[in-house]
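OP here, attaching both records as promised.
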Amino acid sequence: MKMKKEVFVVWDVHQGSFGGVFEDKELAIAACYSDGCGVGPAILNEVGPKEEVDWPGFWFPRMEEEPVETLQKIHREAGGEGMVTETPPSTLLC
């Protein structure tokens, strides 16, 4: 079975604009240029929901810490094993 590839999408909720797709979470965080920019996980080559839904795991790096529950869910969905027990360090941009 092919391992699912996790990517990180940057979206500016204030302007409704796309900011990019990154394999590296730190690059996605660095692409967040305002408080309205958020990072959301996605699985490469997987179709998302067609209806409007809350984006599980979407967060605003300049304003909040990434929730541990989100990390564990993403880890499992990407085929990872074990537990994620803490939020990894992230760089909050000023």
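Record two, same layout:
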Amino acid sequence: MTDRDGEADDRVELDPQLLFDRSRASGFDLLKLLVTLATAAAAGYFATLTRTLDPKLKPDEREVALIALSCMVAAVFAGLLGWMFDARYYERWAQSLQKEQTKGSLWKARNTANGVRRFSIGFSVFFFVLGIIISGVFAYARSEHIIKVP
């Protein structure tokens, strides 16, 4: 093993499986956090759109809030779909290792689940980031009514 400078580093030998497990746990925690934050943001926008506010939302502010709400709901949906297909991916992989006679069809189902999983998680991140950006636009639009500039 080498350090940053390319010199030999004899301190520790890392098991690749340990790094894989850490990466998987980190990705799982990130997805869980993303779905939780998107759900909370969707609830916040739902409350904003259904309550009477002072000052009232202007039509353009309402549209921005609806777009942000839609992005957060899409992030939650895509994240849950990705989570479901993540479980399906590992389930099919384990089944294909156990059953030799149906290995081909299980391997194909595993690959399909992997594609849906990657697509869904990518869309979840995309919609969450887009929702955060639109939330900034909403906050800026609302700040003109809340903070009076002389």
